[in-house]
Specification:
DnaJ_C_subfamily_28; mainly alpha; Rossmann fold; DnaJ_homolog_subfam-C_membr-28; five-stranded parallel sheet; flat; DnaJ_domain; J domain-containing protein
């Protein structure tokens, strides 16, 4: 929550309302800290009901606000407002990031108030800042015998001085850090034939300077090796990459290393005979350009071919197969159940049993219909879409299908047994005698 600043919004109603909603919803500022100017009277009344301060003149907003957000471009305002903008340096456009912008605004407001407490300008030097703080600290210190001593005023002065010092030190450290990080890409190198004569060898005859130069080079090489080992140890401990020198990075010689390694592996495999009796050896490669569709991109065609070779099937094809198998299984189950009943019309008991069987298939039908809906959304061709299963139509199809002869005879025979239950002992032997007589006639 930013409680130390007052912000004004000037512009059309939609953008102004959007900005105020963002500030309030993010809990960045309180409604009483906002001051609004807009030409839309209805929007102004709504903002007043929300607890916002609405002014009829943009100049009043500029006077009352520490910072002003322009919710339109400068060309959308009058000349008087633009002139007021030029006088006020705290004008910000709405396109800038809000939270980072508010941090800068709070810091700027705090610095302005701190300089006002010390009675200084923002461009004063450090010595003037120190002298002003010492003078006011002596004047308002609680232990001083002066009549203006005040602990509250002294703490305010001390806080203002600390904040200014903190801000200046941060800016100074930032500038020094940028200067220290400057690393020139081009370093001066002396001519090769004059190095030991000029650089870091002192005075003496050419032979003496050359001897000292050789010693220094050896010592420098030892130091470089030690530094490299230390860096490698640190990199292993911290799991970090070693930043290599620009010149030494060019000395890495790994060109064609992978190619030679692959060639060695191929030669070893050929010696072991792994390339013998390969399928298609000595034959031309298969030409697949003739089978390619002219309406499909070559890359898309190859990707689809790779997917098909690896056993990939689109989801809508899998759904189609599942739906057809489940419908077929459902029809077979209903037909098997239908064969246990007699011919139409059913009796009351058979009708009740048949209704129970149909009722038990409703969850499976609902599941199949859900798959059909999903399939219709995924299928790329509209002609391949399916119609949902209707239980009534399925029942009519099963009932109108003729019952097999074996099942029909069995059911009729069972009916005769039930009807003629009293004479069953006499009829069954006669039936078998009749069957045996038929077989004997065929043999003769």
């Amino acid at each position: 929550m930013y409680e130390t600043i007052k912000i004004g919004f000037i512009g059309d109603s939609s953008r102004t309302r959007m900005m105020t909603d963002i500030f309030i919803s993010l809990d960045l500022i309180r409604p009483k800290q906002l001051c609004i100017f807009t030409l839309d009277k209805n929007a102004a009344e709504e903002m007043q009901l929300m607890g916002l301060t609405v002014e009829d003149d943009p100049g009043e907003v500029i006077k009352k606000s520490d910072f002003i957000f322009l919710c339109n471009e400068k060309e959308a305002f009058d000349e008087s407002v633009v002139s007021a903008f030029k006088k006020n340096t705290s004008v910000i456009f709405y396109q800038q990031p809000i939270v980072s912008l508010l941090d800068k605004l709070c810091l700027r407001s705090l610095m302005t108030k701190s300089y006002e407490v010390l009675g200084l300008e923002e461009n004063c030097d450090d010595e003037a800042l120190r002298i002003s703080f010492v003078h006011m600290a002596k004047q308002y210190h609680p232990d001083s015998c002066s009549s203006s001593a005040s602990a509250t005023k002294f703490s305010e002065i001390e806080k203002a001085y600390r904040e200014i010092q903190k801000n200046r030190n941060a800016r100074r450290e930032k500038s020094n850090h940028q200067l220290n990080n400057e690393d020139p890409d081009i370093k001066h190198t002396a001519p090769q034939h004059r190095q030991y004569l000029v650089h870091d060898t002192g005075v003496g005859t050419p032979s003496q300077r050359q001897k000292r130069h050789t010693t220094q080079r050896a010592q420098k090489a030892v130091d470089n090796i030690m530094e490299h080992r230390l860096k490698s140890i640190q990199a292993n401990e911290n799991n970090t990459l070693i930043e290599k020198d620009k010149i030494r990075a060019r000395d890495i010689k790994t060109k064609y290393g992978i190619d030679r390694l692959v060639e060695d592996y191929i030669q070893e495999a050929m010696q072991r005979g792994e390339f013998r009796d390969l399928p298609g050896a000595g034959k031309p490669l298969k030409d697949r350009t003739s089978s390619q569709s002219p309406y499909v991109d070559f890359v898309t065609y190859k990707l689809n071919e790779i997917l098909i070779d690896n056993g990939f099937t689109p989801e809508w094809i899998q759904l189609s197969k599942e739906i057809r198998e489940e419908i077929k299984q459902l029809e077979e189950n209903l037909y098997d159940a239908r064969t246990n009943f007699g011919s139409l019309p059913f009796s009351s008991e058979d009708e009740a049993s048949w209704k129970i069987i149909l009722k038990s298939t409703e969850p499976l039908i609902n599941q199949i219909n859900k798959k059909i809906n999903k399939y219709n959304l995924l299928v790329p061709i509209i002609q391949k879409q399916m119609i949902q299963i209707n239980l009534k139509n399925l029942e009519d199809n099963i009932l109108t299908r003729p019952i097999g002869k074996k099942n029909n005879k069995t059911s009729e025979h069972l009916k005769n047994i039930k009807i003629n239950d009293n004479n069953s002992n006499n009829e069954i032997p006669r039936l078998f005698d009749f069957v045996f007589s038929i077989f004997e006639k065929k043999k003769s």
